[in-house]
Specification:
heterodimer, A: alpha+beta, five-stranded mixed beta sheet, 6 helices, 41% helix, globular, B: alpha/beta, four-stranded mixed beta sheet, 51% helix, 17% strand, binds iron/sulfur cluster
Chain lengths: 172, 330
Amino acid sequence: MCGLLNINMAYVNGTLIASYFICKRELWFMAHELTPDQDNSFLELGRFIEEDYYKREEKGFIVGEMKIDIVKQGDENVIIGEIKKSSRSELTGIMQLSYYLMRLKEIGIIAKGEVLIPKERKKIPVELTKEIEEKLRKAIEEIQMIIMEPFPPKLEKIPYCTHCAYREFCWS
Amino acid sequence: MSENIYIFSNGELKRKQNTIYFEVKDGNHKYLPVENIREIHLFGEVILNKDALEFLSQKEIILHFYNYYGYYVGSFYPREHYNSGYILLKQVEHYLDFEKRRYLALKFVEGAISNIITVLSYYRRKGINLESLDKINALYQNLFYQNTIEEIMAIEGKVREIYYSEFNKIIENKEFIMDKRSKKPPENQINALISFGNSLLYSYILSEIYKTHLDPRIGYLHATNFRRFTLNLDIAEIFKPIIVDRVIFYITNKNMLSSRDFEEKLNGIYLKESGRKIFISKIEEKLRTTVFYKKLGKNVSYRRLIRMELYKLEKHLIGDEKYYPLISEW
Ligand code: SF4
């Protein structure tokens, strides 16, 4: 079973962290390379926002297996940014960034984070706290359990379904 | 919105920087909106070079080729962009395990026959005397006792034979019925329409498979030999009655076609370009028609229904939800 998964058990990537806080079923799909429908207009909007608003910024950094949208030098620390479409994904953005901050900390880099919502001109500062770190550790453990399961978690209607790229897959 | 392009003329498909254009023999040319194209159907003699193919591949545009008679011959299927080793292994597992393969083969035929019954029942309600419905119902009951794939296919074959013989009653246009009587086997105008419609359906389904993680070479009802696509043939069984056959009834009963739209060649009768164009415009219209999909809670087009059928299959393969074929209520 595990041989089929594209997952390094030691590390979990940011997308999986985000999915974990959105929908565990989505998490399982992602881990099994069942990428969602690219025709989905929400995804297209996401790509468009990324390409359009941040043309001049350096973006798409890869640190280990983390894909960080934006990295820039702040007054004191390095600032990493995660771009989100709307406030709906604010919380997942915070958790995703905190995860990157935690991983950077492990290799001795102290950084700060910012969740950016260009459409709403919002910028939410993110700092790694003890509680969040604790939450993340628990999440990582659980993520590894979920993706080891032979089947995806059962289908259940949640508010996120309406905007989810898996909507037609799940509800077909 | 992405669209399908149909090319009937002879000429050359060329790339020019970031666009593709079609140059007709007489020197005229037409640009194709690559960003909005899902697939291109080629009916004419078309010359293509590597540069154009590379570009189409990069844009993930599928080319479907038809021969002189309008029959599907093959597709240029760009490298898969949705890859999942997991799904591929599951697809193979369901092929190699006989019980699992039988289940899917049975379900595809169940969908096919159920939809044939839906179509016939509609015309019966309209007052046409279709006594064959009982025979088809009996065969349908029998389906579930068949053990081998060959037996399952045989039932489907019998049902289709009976079903096609009823076309004469459903199609009011005398021209078509006369032809049926004077048939010199096996071709007649109705057969030409069925073959053409099925060819189109195979290619549409293949294009939808391209948008999923499924490998079109692994079919369950139609044996896999890895040299041609078979999964689209499987899925087509379910959709033939509700898409292709309905379009045939529509255009014949509305007198949109006449014998002038057919021609006799070799030993058969084929649709001419004029007829193909009418057929294509109507089948495109059908694919865009929407119906309410309860589980999703919104309207979806027939084209989307094909995609969702593939999603259902994917979910079955990963053990998420058992596959049941689409049985049309419309
Ligand atoms: S559609 Fe709903 S259940 Fe399915 S992955 Fe998305 S959020 Fe989860």
